[in-house]
Model the fold of this input.
Amino acid sequence: MHAFPEHRCFIDTVPVPPEERVRYWEERCREQLVSFRCSPHADEGLLAQQICVEAGSLRIGRTRANAHVIERTPESIRAFPRESIFMNLVLAGGVFAYQRGHAAKLAAGGLMVYDARYPYLLGGAPGFDILHLDIPAELFRARFGREDMSHPLQLDEADGASRLYRQALQRLLLDAMGDAPARVTGAPAFDEAVCELLGAVMGQAAGPLPLSAMSAGHLLAAREYIEAHLDEEGLTAHDVAAHVGISERHLRRLFAAQDTSVADHILQRRLERAHRLLQDRQARRLTIAETAYRCGFSNHAHFSRVFKQRYGMTPSELAGRPAH
Done:
């Protein structure tokens, strides 16, 4: 499991009296993430929720809200400076931004990187859902070779490898917030994985990447594609490599560097999913055969054999145990 989050906060304006919501939102966000001025644009007033966690050197936030605009003014920056570069990844709805003479409009899947040391305006449409990543400016400069961002870097939703990189980055950030099983052990490894993957995403628009960053991005994108296609019996290394945009030989080398193979990784993830389903009360209506099928196994006998090798009991024995 992760050695974090070291700090977690939850901000919710819904229980707050309508006339106090904006002030409450501004004060709590200033304490946890960044100072700004907020203007709601909905008849019911500001309805917003935010989760923030510290993960290694990074700070991650997720905001779900109705229509409103925030502005980080020169006064806010002087009073509450933040030596950070921000990344926003839109999960749902739409977001627009304005900074240093540049305007950006992002739909779901869009990503923007910008310098929080300069004033900006950021707004969301009703029902927007966005992930924030706060990267210390010093770390950003060391990793990406940029002293500052002269204007926001906007990366719209794309196809192929770029989409897989974004999905992998999204999964890593949600992992750190406790929304999904963790895959990276320890804060330093998490910092490294996030920065290298963000570098791969940015590299889709900014030219070639260093080999280490590109390889990390390819590996995480491959894992993301595998995760989304575990139910496909015929999933092979060839399929994964083709969708990530690399050769099968290079893909095999990436997994070998992790002391595993593509096939072994697929099998392990299938068995872990099956084990989870067999213990899930909501999924207990499934037969063993249906569980196997959902996890990419078409041969019941083979499924039972490899499952017992991995967990020391058959699927039927696990399913027959009382749920805890």
